[in-house]
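Researcher: Good morning. I'm working through a list of sequences from a screen, and I'd like to move beyond sequence-only analysis. For each chain I'm collecting a predicted structure so we can compare shapes side by side. This is the next one on the list. No need for commentary yet; just the structure.
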Amino acid sequence: MRQKIKKIHFIGIGGIGVSAIAKMMDRQGKKITGSDAGNSEIIQDLKKGGIKIFLGHQEKNLADDIDLVVYSSAIPRNNPERKKAKKLKIKQLSYVEILAEISKEKFTLAVSGTHGKSTTTALLGLFLEKAGFNPLVIVGSKLKAFKDGNLQFGKGKFFVIEACEYQENMLKLQPKAIILTNLEKDHLDYYKNLKHLVKSFQKYINKLPKDGLLILNSDDKNLKKLKLPDCKIIKFGIENKADLKIVNRIVKEEKQIFNLIYKNKNLSRFELKVPGLFNLYNFLGACACALEFGVKPEAIKKSLSDFNGIWRRFEKVGEKNGAIFISDYAHHPTAVKKTIQAAKEFYPKRRIVAVFQPHLASRTKDLFKEFIEAFDLADIIILSEIYRPAGREENLKISSKDLIMKIKKRGKKILYAADLKEIKKLISENIKKNDLVLIMGAGDIYKLKIKN
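Model: Good morning. Structure tokens for this chain:
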């Protein structure tokens, strides 16, 4: 398909995944244009690379001679550029559909689960790259070791991707190997309940061929509800029986140090420079896959020495008057809770100021009870108003103020911010020397600028 296509227009080109595909197609010599609702770091990066981008969505952005339109999942059918493409009978593919097309030509390794997809994908890509496999990697974040950040433009046989469960998108892919990090209630605007989510993941892993590979977390209670398919199974974990395990873990000088046991063999001592048990599970999933495909432990160890995390995943973004500022994508209550816990463990002498922007009114409503309990380890909480994507969820009547009322009853100091400007003001008024300010959310809170 791609050989016949010369000109591609991307709608929602500022998305982290869509922008990676745009870069990839640009590197392959295609003529790329794109549009997005607003400016961003990603848009600026694409423009520097010579890609023509229109801000705002209008019919005229789409040239009549375009061969293919690729659109983000956030772009509705009534988008003016999509409507024009339909009128001109230009082929249209969603982000996941273009991923599926690319994956047909590759040996696809898909990372799935509620939490940890981006970090696991980045680590697996890094391990394969260090071992000389030259993989093609698309990650839902940015990694400094990759020249293009969210893209590693390798020409080897492996294609490493995140297979997201949003609207069952993972079912459109045909991976040869799947890594399952964990499974938990989320996207309840689509899934009826946890049972529905598990059922969808069962369909997904059943797609694996007999010579395929399933790698899964043996410690995750919801993954245990799956009936394992007839293919090779590798389990990783810390608590339960597994093919790949971590033992003798200590936290020292902002590092997690541990022994790695693979099929009863001690692979020696490893160091991970990002915090939290959840990151150890991310590492284990990537490591299990890499080992199964022939990556040597030495290459993995060497990769870790250069790995300081990825964009918006416990990313150090600044210091001010002795306080450290960390940016994190955590938007699910479990991720929020574990990120605060990880911060406490890595920085036990610092006071934790948790700054959180809830993402989606539907998620806030569906997981309301869990969000109330997520901040117990924080010393101070600043809660922004809920981030609602333009044109979505306008009729859902819920506010961050509803959460604040309940969290206050747990004896926590919690403050309300209507917008980013007020968040910045509240941080300035409440931080002390040696605090750790943890800025979390999947909306636009990452745009908060911290001046050193």
